[in-house]
TrEMBL record:
Transmembrane parts of this sequence: none
Keywords: DNA-binding, Transcription, Transcription regulation
Protein name: AraC family transcriptional regulator
Species of provenance: Paenibacillus agaridevorans
Domain of life of the organism encoding this protein: Bacteria
C-alpha cells in the first residue's frame, strides 16, 4: 500500500511539472526509489514509459489550451517544452491527427489522455513462490536481439526469436555448448526511459565459446529474487513478470538493482499447464 501511495505522490508531482523539463531523479525521489526502479515499475503498471506518459499529457493540455484561449501556437509550444513550432506540430499531429493550427476549427476532434492513478488491488488468488539467492558473477554466451517494450513489441518479437532460434538450430547448439546448463532468456542493457533493451538466448559458458554469430556477456554478482513460473509459454512467464512488478515489489522492501533479468528454462513440454521455469530479478534492499 505504501509503495503505491508513493507512486501516486510521484504522479502528482509530475502533473505540477508539465510546463517544465522532465527531471527523472526528482520524480523518482517522490516515490522513494531509484530512477531505474521507478521507471521499470511505472512501465509495468501503466504499459508505457514515463517519457511517453508525460508527452501525451503535455499534448493533451496543449490542445485544451489552444481550444480555450487565443494563445499563439508558438507560445503554447514553448510553454510545454518544444523548442520549435515544427517539433511541436509533428508531436501534436502524431497524437491528435491534425496540426495545432487546426485545433480551433469547429467540429475538430481531439484526443484527451487523462492523468493516471494507481489503485491497490488485493488479488491473492495465486501463490507467488520465490526465494532470495546471492550468486557470483558468471558469463553467458548466446544470440542477441535488440527489442523494445513500446506498444508491447517485446511480447511479440521475443517468442518469434525463440521460434526462429529453435528452427535454425541455435538453441540445440547452445545446449551442446554447455551440457547440463539451463537455457536462459536474458534481458540486458535495459533503458526504462525509452523501453529499449537487448534480449539474449544464452547459456552459462566461458567467453571463448562465443564463436560465429554468438556473443559473450558478463552477468555481475548480484542478489536475486527467484520466482517459479507454472504454465505454458510464453503466457505464463509474461503474466509472472507483470505480477512481480504490480504485486511483489509493492509488498516488499526491495527494489530493482538495475542488472539483467533472467528467464531460466528447464527441459519439458513448454505448452503444458504444468511446465515450470524460473524468473530471476536482481534486487537490493530499498533505502529507508
Amino acid at each position: 500500500m505504501e509503495a503505491l501511495i508513493r507512486m501516486m505522490n510521484a504522479l502528482d508531482y509530475m502533473e505540477t511539472k508539465m510546463e517544465e523539463k522532465l527531471d527523472m531523479e526528482e520524480i523518482a525521489k517522490k516515490a522513494h526509489s531509484s530512477t531505474f526502479h521507478f521507471q521499470r515499475m511505472f512501465h509495468f503498471l501503466t504499459g508505457m514509459s514515463v517519457a511517453e506518459y508525460v508527452r501525451k499529457r503535455k499534448l493533451t493540455l496543449a490542445a485544451q489550451e489552444l481550444v480555450a484561449s487565443s494563445a499563439r501556437v508558438l507560445d503554447v509550444a514553448l510553454k510545454y517544452g518544444y523548442d520549435s513550432p515544427e517539433s511541436f506540430a509533428k508531436a501534436f499531429r502524431r497524437i491528435h491527427g491534425i496540426a495545432p493550427s487546426e485545433a480551433r476549427l469547429p467540429g475538430v476532434q481531439l484526443k484527451a489522455f487523462p492523468r493516471l492513478s494507481f489503485h491497490l488491488s488485493l488479488k491473492g488468488d495465486q501463490d507467488m513462490d520465490y526465494r532470495i539467492e546471492d550468486k557470483e558473477s558468471f558469463t553467458i554466451v548466446g544470440k542477441s536481439l535488440a527489442v523494445s517494450c513500446v506498444d508491447g513489441e517485446n511480447t511479440r518479437e521475443i517468442p518469434k526469436f525463440w521460434g526462429a532460434s529453435h528452427a535454425d538450430g541455435t538453441v540445440r547448439a547452445l545446449e551442446e555448448l554447455a551440457p547440463g546448463e539451463l537455457c536462459l532468456g536474458v534481458c540486458l542493457d535495459m533503458k526504462p526511459e525509452t523501453g529499449d533493451f537487448n534480449y539474449m538466448i544464452a547459456v552459462k559458458a566461458d567467453e571463448d565459446k562465443a564463436t560465429g554469430d554468438l556473443v559473450a556477456r558478463a552477468v555481475p554478482a548480484l542478489t536475486w529474487a527467484i520466482f517459479t513460473s507454472i504454465g505454458p509459454m510464453p503466457d505464463a512467464i509474461q503474466s509472472l513478470f507483470g505480477r512481480i512488478y504490480s504485486e511483489w515489489f509493492p509488498a516488499t522492501g526491495y527494489e530493482h538493482a538495475g542488472g539483467p533479468e533472467i528467464e531460466a528454462y528447464t527441459d519439458g513440454d513448454t505448452t503444458s499447464d504444468e511446465y515450470r521455469c524460473e524468473v530471476w530479478i536482481p534486487i537490493i534492499k530499498k533505502a529507508k
